[in-house]
Amino acid sequence: MKNVEPILTHIDTHTPDLIELSDTVWGMPETLYAEYESCAQHTAVLKAKGFTVTEEVAGIPTAVMGEAGEGGPVIAILGEYDALPGLSQVANIAEPKPLTAGGAGHGCGHNLLGSAALLAACALKDWLAETGTPGRVRYYGCPAEEGGAAKAFMVRDGAFEDVDAAITWHPATHTKVDDAQSLANTRIDFTFTGRSSHAAAAPHLGRSALDACELMNVGIQYMREHMPSSARIHYAYLDAGGTAPNVVQGRAKIRYTVRATDLPGMMALIERVKKVAEGAALMTETSVQPQVISAVSNLLGNTPLEEALQDVMDGLGGVAFDDADRKYAAEIQATLSEGDILASARRFGVEPRENEPLCDYVVPRDLKGDGMMGSTDVADVSWAVPTVQARVATHAIGTPGHSWQITAQGKAPAAHKGMTYAGAAMGALARKLFTDEVLLARAKKDHQARLTKQPYTCPIPTDVQPPLQPRPSAAAE
């Protein structure tokens, strides 16, 4: 990191503790709404560092908030710590080797994400106290980003009502200010109920719920030709009705994920998907019950914050990787295809460079990616308050999202360097917001102008609650 930024001394003070937190969370991967131990680790660090802690934010047992400072604006730093199922992996090798067969793993780098966010908050806490600057920094430990939409539930509950601006980041293959593009996303379960019967002796008496699921899939397949090319619809069977082919399946459940570039487009697609489900039920003389599980909005950009973050990151320079980092990254790249590497670079609007296993520079903000995007519950925070997000290089160029390769690199020195850089960038931007009233006012004005064009509507129905998971029993632990 090239320049002299006042927050960096405080970043250096807390870096060892937060790297330890990241590695600890990496070693206890927990999936959506079951992040009890990971949340406890973050809570313990918040308390040890002197934050005022609020647990079970929005009634979610694995959400926590820590605050420090007095008066002034409230700047939120958003962290995550949930893992993904099926991505258990031994660290620091370049071959697939699960630690636990079928186990979870941090295949999206959220162990780094939460720890860097907390690192920024710790540094800001010290800087506020040292300088006497009015302002409050808040660290939000947010669970269940991977399909659980916890931040959307937190926004709906008012957890960000008095926040002036929010900052976050995500581990990536390149370092760049996020383009603030994502797909609105709803997960809906469709439960079909028919009538079981003997498939040979009395097939005419059965009404197959599995047939209804299959027909729904066929209908959606034909629908894909007649929807925007940027939209996405995926499905997975949750209950296929059993394993006995000689029984007509009387009940089956299928989950659909519906994505679109904005909320109105997503809502329109959802109604069409529901009609296909109803048609499948009519054809099979079954009944169908849709149930929304979670939903998130599309990201809302904020030009003043994005420009300010670009200035900060240009001042810091790229992540300072060394030859050992590049050697391991090259070994990871050897497990990837040329297509992986090309897609990874083009997602950030650049072309792959020869013999470049890691990105050690900051991608200019005016370079735009190829438009392929996923979904995030950060989006709902971005509708509630002015929000900005960084992408920071922590793993080899070409590494696919949600892969064993990300899990393998999650404790590597390169990941620690990227995590520390992210903490510094977020901390430096927050320091600007605490000291530059004009910048914060411009960010709020930009946010309000966007809301005037399209007001926010929470995509989660009011009667839907987070799909919370029970705390593991002592015996299970």
Question: How would you characterize this protein structure?
Answer:
This protein has 477 residues and is of the alpha/beta class. It is 39% helix and 17% strand. Helix 3 packs parallel to helix 12. The protein is globular and about 80 Å long. The model has no long low-confidence stretch (mean pLDDT 96).
What's the short version?
With 477 residues, the protein is of the alpha/beta class. The protein is 39% helix and 17% strand. The protein contains 13 helices and 11 strands.
List the main descriptive attributes of the protein structure presented here.
39% helix; four-stranded antiparallel beta sheet; 13 helices; seven-stranded mixed beta sheet; 477 residues; globular; alpha/beta; 17% strand
Pairing-aware structural class of the strands and helices?
alpha/beta
Radius of gyration: 23 Å
Order of strands, main sheet, comes to 1-2-4-3-5-11-6
Mean model confidence by pLDDT: 96
User: What is the number of helical segments per DSSP (H or I, 4+ residues)?
Assistant: 13
Tally of strands: 11
N/C terminus separation: 42 Å
Choose one word for the global shape.
globular
Strand and helix map with partners:
Blueprint: H1 8-26, H2 36-48, E1 52-55, E2 64-70, E3 74-80, H3 110-131, E4 135-142, H4 150-156, E5 165-172, E6 176-177, E7 184-193, H5 209-223, E8 232-239, E9 251-260, H6 263-284, E10 287-296, H7 303-316, H8 323-333, H9 338-346, H10 378-384, E11 387-393, H11 404-409, H12 413-435, H13 437-453
Parallel strand pairs: 3-4, 3-5, 5-11
Antiparallel strand pairs: 1-2, 2-4, 6-11, 7-9, 7-10, 8-9
Helix pairs in contact: 1-2, 1-3, 1-12, 3-12, 5-6, 7-12, 7-13
